[in-house]
Amino acid sequence: MDEKDSELLELCKKEIEKKYHFGNGHGYVKQRDFEYLIDLIEETCGTKLSISTLKRIWRKGEEQNPHPSTLNALVSVLGYKDWLEFKLRYASPGGINPVNKKGTNLLNKKGAIVIGLVLMLSTISFLYLNADNSEFPDSDEILFVGNKTVSKGVPSTVIFNYDVSEIEADSFFIQQDWNPNHRDRIDPKNNFFSSIYYVPGYHKAKLVANETFLKTIPIHIQTDGWMSAAFYNYDDRPVYIMEDQNQDGILAADKNDILGSNLDIERFSELRFINIREYPGIDGHNFIAETRFRYREFLFDPCPEIRLTIHTEAHIYFVPVTLKGCESNIAIKIGEDYQEGRDNDLSAFGTDIYNWQDLTLVVEDKTGKVFLNGSEIYETTFLEDFGEIKGLDFRTSGLIEVDYILLKDIEGNLVFQDSF
User: Fold this and answer.
1) Does the reported pTM lie above 0.85?
2) Residue 211: strand, helix, or coil
3) How many domains does the chain have?
4) What pLDDT, on a 0 to 100 scale, did the predictor assign at position 246?
């Protein structure tokens, strides 16, 4: 990679850090930032980058020579079609050249055209020489469907029907969701493969050839009302507590049920109340979510947290509250905007959570506002499309009580309500 391309790559990294608040904009990108970026790139353009590739690109002082497909993947999350479009937007003979508000290069127009043609021809030649000559059909032409053996509840087996007989590749896989650890090799001569889903949610299964995603389909694993489950650190198989946790108008879990469920206390991470279902017509860019809850008893975490999570077709939103003094531990995600308490001021989310808390999330035209006990405490905007709402859950490190949860459209019309 020449000096000019190296400068452009540094600019690309800075733009990603700024847009997604990685490393607080100062280059101190964390492991979870890389993990989020991997997921974001995959959802945006279908390319799966490894965490080692991203770490190598971000590592200071290391000579960079990323593959063209990697460069295309990086700029995709900035809204560019490919690396060439990014280069034409920013490149100039003297390095990185500023642009005016309309996006017009400040170079002489004739010079810019000449430079653009040279860059285009050189990039096309480079891509041709380095391209993977294997071609795959359009996703619409590929058979890949999944059918659940049960309509609701978990565990849930999904039978995948696929046909890759006309596709040339060294290996084929089915990946259950965004997590690459949930990937199984499949026989290209066969047409069926089954997987078990242990966690409800709006998953997206992927048919993979080598490292190329051929097709993605939704797998909506629904619950029959509210269910509770305990989760371990780094383990995707939860311990199911009970199907129905309604207790005299309160959603709660009984401590004896938790401790009597063969839960390994040493590995316990969080308790979830989950309701994954169809919420007809609730746009994930325009809605109001209101809930009331309180923390009752911590199990093993001196910094308790309650997190409202909203599942959409694309990804999840989550909004936390915690005990005053514990704000550094929390994080918030609305749209693709993700912020941690370690490098952002999330002190407004600290409160006396042992008393009832009224939490409201208002999302209108991709602007999100959080209200706690009637006061606005947070506002952000986002750009990506998230589709319709497909589920709700509450996550906590201990025992909580939920009084109610409701969803409205942005005009205030009630679409879903549960007072237990």
Assistant:
1) no
2) coil
3) 3
4) 57
